[in-house]
């Protein structure tokens, strides 16, 4: 895979004094192979390799960078540019209803994405009135699927049935949305297992009838080279305004992100990162690049850490630990607060590279957040003296604390046990490790 290949490439360059035609030849060959293996289309691979070569040869890199770091930077930069530099937002600036048309093959994730997108928009602005409609008249289950999603995210659903014509359904929904002052109408469509003319004609007709402001091409990132062919066909049939790359949570090779963007020239607006309703993220090329390069989602992680970290508190804690002083409940509370500022434990975990990032998917949503709020309530009911000296918390104090936090003594015991565990964990962190983390956070 791409990640492994690149790490081999960089291993080979390591130890060389500077980048030259000779020593990057092998590295470039590996990059080329890696991209081909990741199912990036050939012309795009060629372009990319040439770009990297030009940059690498001309480049004078700072003393602080080793050749492999410099090469890594160049590849990373080129990847980001290829994928379209900045995140491109949904365009909803239309006379209401702003109509969004979903296009793509069957199983790409269109219907699921309509649900996710509704949630995404509602999370940003609760007042937005959203209407969903399904023009997938080939499978009754598809219409039902969208109806259930609408209920789940609490947006309205415009009923349709298999006896109707897709264009008529879309027009009727748009008419209804206009009359009832909806801000947004999302039109879900049918897909086929392969590109076929009838399907293309149908979606072209829907497009012509409703004139959507966004025509989003939904494509499965796991498709690899086929993603390219599909993208090309849809791009020729419809004036696409953006792409949504789904199933990026699987072991998609990332190649699809590279080539779909290049083939269509249209921005990737979102990526699907799970089956759940919140499994949608705005597309950030720099993040995908680092994912492709095997750095996990380190950039996002660092951003989150930077946002949340209170430098003074962290420094103080590091010093305390360095001096071997005990980590107390005040520190525990401060940690919870920082974790929350960073977007929560699950969020941080999900962005860790490799295995660690996978773990987050097994935790039911909101579990950690709830647990943290609970712990915080208990700590809030303690006196400053108790927080600084948890050892003095005996039976009568526990009773008082439990009453104050509206919970039971058992829960207080459980929380104190958790605290002890994290106290032990914190002891394992040396001051040095903490400082390293701080440096990373500052970039
Ligand atoms: P449609 O035929 O294009 O409407 O595709 P669906 O929305 O019905 O999705 C097909 C399958 O892909 C369903 O099982 C979805 O749960 C799944 N799916 C969609 N998006 C994602 C994603 O981002 N990640 C994962 N893991 N599964 C997805
Ligand atoms: Mg569907």
UniProtKB/TrEMBL annotation:
<feature type="domain" description="SRP54-type proteins GTP-binding">
    <location>
        <begin position="267"/>
        <end position="280"/>
    </location>
</feature>
<protein>
    <recommendedName>
        <fullName>Signal recognition particle protein</fullName>
        <ecNumber>3.6.5.4</ecNumber>
    </recommendedName>
</protein>
<dbReference type="GO" id="GO:0003924">
    <property type="term" value="F:GTPase activity"/>
</dbReference>
<dbReference type="InterPro" id="IPR003593">
    <property type="entry name" value="AAA+_ATPase"/>
</dbReference>
<dbReference type="InterPro" id="IPR000897">
    <property type="entry name" value="SRP54_GTPase_dom"/>
</dbReference>
<comment type="similarity">
    <text>Belongs to the GTP-binding SRP family. SRP54 subfamily.</text>
</comment>
<dbReference type="Pfam" id="PF00448">
    <property type="entry name" value="SRP54"/>
</dbReference>
<keyword id="KW-0733">Signal recognition particle</keyword>
<comment type="subunit">
    <text>Part of the signal recognition particle protein translocation system, which is composed of SRP and FtsY. SRP is a ribonucleoprotein composed of Ffh and a 4.5S RNA molecule.</text>
</comment>
<keyword id="KW-0547">Nucleotide-binding</keyword>
<dbReference type="InterPro" id="IPR013822">
    <property type="entry name" value="Signal_recog_particl_SRP54_hlx"/>
</dbReference>
<keyword id="KW-0342">GTP-binding</keyword>
<feature type="binding site">
    <location>
        <begin position="188"/>
        <end position="192"/>
    </location>
    <ligand>
        <name>GTP</name>
    </ligand>
</feature>
<keyword id="KW-0687">Ribonucleoprotein</keyword>
<dbReference type="InterPro" id="IPR036891">
    <property type="entry name" value="Signal_recog_part_SRP54_M_sf"/>
</dbReference>
<dbReference type="InterPro" id="IPR042101">
    <property type="entry name" value="SRP54_N_sf"/>
</dbReference>
<dbReference type="GO" id="GO:0006614">
    <property type="term" value="P:SRP-dependent cotranslational protein targeting to membrane"/>
</dbReference>
<dbReference type="GO" id="GO:0005525">
    <property type="term" value="F:GTP binding"/>
</dbReference>
<dbReference type="GO" id="GO:0048500">
    <property type="term" value="C:signal recognition particle"/>
</dbReference>
<dbReference type="InterPro" id="IPR004780">
    <property type="entry name" value="SRP"/>
</dbReference>
<keyword id="KW-0694">RNA-binding</keyword>
<feature type="binding site">
    <location>
        <begin position="104"/>
        <end position="111"/>
    </location>
    <ligand>
        <name>GTP</name>
    </ligand>
</feature>
<dbReference type="GO" id="GO:0008312">
    <property type="term" value="F:7S RNA binding"/>
</dbReference>
<dbReference type="InterPro" id="IPR004125">
    <property type="entry name" value="Signal_recog_particle_SRP54_M"/>
</dbReference>
<dbReference type="InterPro" id="IPR022941">
    <property type="entry name" value="SRP54"/>
</dbReference>
<dbReference type="InterPro" id="IPR027417">
    <property type="entry name" value="P-loop_NTPase"/>
</dbReference>
<feature type="binding site">
    <location>
        <begin position="246"/>
        <end position="249"/>
    </location>
    <ligand>
        <name>GTP</name>
    </ligand>
</feature>
<dbReference type="Pfam" id="PF02978">
    <property type="entry name" value="SRP_SPB"/>
</dbReference>
<dbReference type="Pfam" id="PF02881">
    <property type="entry name" value="SRP54_N"/>
</dbReference>
<keyword id="KW-0963">Cytoplasm</keyword>
<keyword id="KW-0378">Hydrolase</keyword>
<comment type="function">
    <text>Involved in targeting and insertion of nascent membrane proteins into the cytoplasmic membrane. Binds to the hydrophobic signal sequence of the ribosome-nascent chain (RNC) as it emerges from the ribosomes. The SRP-RNC complex is then targeted to the cytoplasmic membrane where it interacts with the SRP receptor FtsY. Interaction with FtsY leads to the transfer of the RNC complex to the Sec translocase for insertion into the membrane, the hydrolysis of GTP by both Ffh and FtsY, and the dissociation of the SRP-FtsY complex into the individual components.</text>
</comment>
